[in-house]
Amino acid sequence: MELQILLTDDKTKYMQIYEQIRQAILEKTLLAHSKLPAKRRLAEQLNISIMTVQMAYEQLQSEGYSYSVERQGYFVSEIEDEWHYAENAQTSLKKPEQPEHFINFKNGQVDADVFPFKLWNRLYRKELNEFNGYNAPWQGEYALRLQIARYLQQARGLACQPEQVYIFSGFQQQLMNVCLFFNRGAIGTEEPGFIRAKSVFEQLQLQYHPISVDEEGCCVPNETIKLLYTTPAHQYPTGAIMSAARRIQLLQWALKQDAYIIEDDYDSEFRYKGAPIATLSHLDSSERVLYFGTFSKTLLPSLRMSYLIMPASLQSDFEQFNTYQKSTVSRIDQQVVAKLMAEGHYTGHIAKMRTLYRAKRSCLIESITNQLGEEFEIMGDAAGLHIIVQLPDRLNESIAIELAKSKGVEIDAVSTMYQLHKPSHQVMLGYGAPSLDEIQKGVSLLAAVWKKSLSN
Fold first, then answer.
1. Phi/psi at 71 (nearest 5 deg)?
2. Each residue of 43-93: pLDDT tens digit?
3. How far is the C-alpha of 72 from the C-alpha of 18, rounded, in Å?
4. Would you call the peptide bond into 210 cis, given omega within 30 degrees of 0 as the criterion?
5. 290 and 145 within one domain
6. Is 404 contained in some domain?
7. Less CB within 10 Å around the terminal CB: N or C of the chain?
8. Is residue 1 included in any domain, yes or no?
9. 352 plus 340 within the same structural domain
10. What is the DSSP string of 272-334?
């Protein structure tokens, strides 16, 4: 039989043959059990190789549209059900209009341009060549857990054993696992606080109480709760650093209430004023603190690697709870990070990034001061990778964000971090991603559009 196949340059030839025969079968143009053209004959007709026709026929057979009979060729399968087939219309995706400038002041970003990609690729290739195909242990690679324990001892004064370290694929998966493990009802979370933490509580349908934050950090809860989530080193989003007195009060509260504290130390490496602050876990002699750390800010967010330090008294129960879990973090990535840490590259990279982010922070503060003036107050600039800007009363948060976006400048709202009394005149500017030139340009664009709005 003669098949009419039209070939174009849009797709591979074998795929076009497959699709056109499939359509003919579904539309009953080719009847059940009728024979398809011989491969050689169709190849000569279309002036293509026999292998191309072979690939198309094998694809039809694998999906059940045809069957083969030895020494006789390929035949159309019988499809009993009525099927009205139409090719999906090819739609051209309209490219979204990009503003003249795009400057990313969004929070949670890092400067990927200075990541040691050459070093990473060299270590990665070495690990890949030695890779034996096995998955990582559920708890994580021992080499990485050992390096994390050593790093925390040196950098954060936190003494722990590698057996207490658990590797997870990011903060939210880690928090979800811990919440399920405790299963203790109500949870306390800072007000304002990390929106992704609240998202986990909501997904798990857990009751959570907002615990107010003041200039000393998270307050001691009055509510009856058994688990408290807090960010002592750099409160998110206010930037408050928890005082030593408040840390002691929280530890005493936890012991008295038979409660536990989740200490999220997510960007403690980037502190710009004063000496490093000891972790809450460092002061904990009653094993009431679970320590959360991450590589998202010190390396790359896309690495998706975080870690938990579990109090020794909870290890056995925690491991039993996770008996049938598997590691969700690439074993190769874990080994590469372990090598980075063991060879001293990790601490060197952090020192380099701290210097860079300090310069970016100074540039941002200076640009805001010079171009926006005293009406725009800067808050929470002692640590981390973002600041909060208090807007004049005449400039609403949502309007300020829309005006910024119209000029290609992306910033974050602060009101979403609150559950109760939401501020309406604050925005957040992250300085991890933009370059020094982009920071100056971005603030210049904000100043122009915001000041124009204020003058109207």
1. 70, 0
2. 888 889 999 999 999 999 998 899 999 889 999 998 766 555 555 545 455
3. 20
4. no
5. yes
6. yes
7. C
8. no
9. no
10. -SSSPPPPHHHH-SSS-EEEEEESTTTT-GGG--EEEE--GGGHHHHHHHTTT----S-HHHH
Between the alpha carbon of residue 211 and those of residues 191, 227, 333, 427, the distances in Å are 5, 12, 37, 22
Q: Is 391 found in the same domain as 315? A: no
Q: How far apart (Å, rounded) are the C-alpha atoms in residues 363 and 378? A: 13
CA 417 to chain centroid, in Å, comes to: 18
Q: Residues 6 or more apart from 411 whose CB is under 8 A from it?
A: 105, 106, 400, 401, 404, 427, 428, 429, 446
Which tens digits make up the pLDDT trace of 149-205?
999 998 888 899 999 999 999 999 999 999 999 986 789 999 999 999 999 999 999
Number of other residues whose CB lies within 10 A of the CB of residue 190: 27
Question: Going edge to edge, which strands form the sheet with 227-230?
Answer: 165-168, 306-309, 289-294, 260-264, 227-230, 187-191, 208-214, 217-218
**451 in the same domain as 326:** no
| Residue-by-residue DSSP string for 71-103 | TTEEEEPP--S-----PPP--PPPPPPPPS--E
The tokens of 41 are what?
């004959």
119 part of a folded domain: no
Residue among 384, 358, 354, 369 nearest 436 (CA): 358
Place of tokens 């971090």: 417
Residue 152 to residue 344: CA distance in whole angstroms:
14
Q: What is the pLDDT of residue 430?
A: 92
